[in-house]
Write a structure and sequence with these properties.
Keywords: Hydrolase, Magnesium, Manganese, Metal-binding
Distance between the termini: 17 Å
Shape: globular
GO molecular function, one term: hydrolase activity, acting on acid anhydrides, in phosphorus-containing anhydrides
Protein name: Nudix hydrolase domain-containing protein
Number of strands: 14
Cofactor: Mg(2+); Mn(2+)
CATH superfamily: Nucleoside Triphosphate Pyrophosphohydrolase
Low-confidence stretches: none
CATH topology: Nucleoside Triphosphate Pyrophosphohydrolase
Mean pLDDT: 91
Radius of gyration: 18 Å
Helix content: 25-40%
Structural class: alpha+beta
CATH architecture: Alpha-Beta Complex
């Protein structure tokens, strides 16, 4: 008897983008922040990914600490209910702060950002407590929806992941100070894709497809503008065997190597 598919856990990931002031010859200014996860991670171990992670119980928007489009607006944008939409956005901002130190909050960047981040990572204080103590609000208006990907049905660990794009706020820097990644680097999208095609970088299908989508934009403003025009529909790849390898097949029939998921299909 075939068992029912595992219910996907909500998650959020953020494409942090910026413009390099002096790009190398042949490269556009656009760069995106990518992290290579530690090999021992249960999900996507060794993969190069955008910052992000699972929604947790604390990811519930507080109306007094929220600026920008409300959860009901995000619900329409992402095709989910308002509670889940708010949790997606909250998790995106929290995870970006935890994993690379970029705080999508305002109206200013607070002093002692590293200390506040350490408190959140160590769970000494909740993210909302940090915002409230610093007199900040979550800036939902700094996020732009890009896509929604759901792990294939036949995997034991599944995620329903909202992909957002955001430009790094002025005066802030993304870093690699996280235990979940062994390195974190700003990449030109086409450069990362070249490394992937040369087997020097491992990308899961959603990451590879997203890099392909943004590689044609020369600057971060163009990516943000394109995000506003995108229609967000859940993408659930189908995994099948192609000769001696497994491939993920997207709804448009594009195929990618099926890598990065635990318990690959036999």
């Amino acid at each position: 008897m075939t068992s029912a598919p595992v219910i996907p856990r909500p998650a959020a990931t953020v494409l942090l983008v910026r413009d390099h002031p002096h790009p190398p010859p042949g490269r556009s200014p656009l760069q995106v922040f990518l992290q290579r996860r530690v090999t021992e991670m249960a999900f996507a171990g060794g993969m190069t990914v955008f910052p992000g992670g699972g929604v947790d119980a604390s990811d519930r928007p507080h109306p007094d600490r929220w600026a920008g489009p409300e959860p009901r607006w995000w619900a329409e944008r992402l095709g989910v209910d308002a509670d889940l939409a708010g949790a997606f956005v909250h998790a995106a901002v929290r995870e970006t702060f935890e994993e690379c130190g970029v705080l999508l909050a305002g109206p200013r960047t607070p002093a002692g950002l590293d200390r506040l981040r350490a408190d959140v990572v160590a769970r000494r204080r909740s993210f909302d407590d940090v915002l409230a103590g610093a007199g900040l609000v979550l800036r939902a208006d700094l996020l732009h929806a890009w896509a929604r990907w759901i792990t294939p049905h036949d995997y034991p660990r599944r995620y329903d992941t909202a992909f957002f794009v955001a430009r790094v706020p002025d005066g802030q820097e993304a870093d690699a100070h996280t235990t979940e990644a062994v390195e974190a680097v700003w990449w030109h999208p086409d450069e990362a894709l070249e490394r992937w095609q040369e087997d020097e970088m491992q990308l899961m299908p959603p990451t590879a497809r997203t890099l392909q989508e943004i590689a044609g934009f020369g600057e971060s403003a163009a990516v943000l503008g394109a995000a506003a025009e995108r229609v967000i529909r859940p993408i659930t790849p189908v995994v099948r065997r192609d000769g001696d390898r497994l491939v993920s097949v997207l709804p448009d029939r594009t195929t990618f190597p099926a890598v990065g998921f635990p318990g690959h299909l036999a």
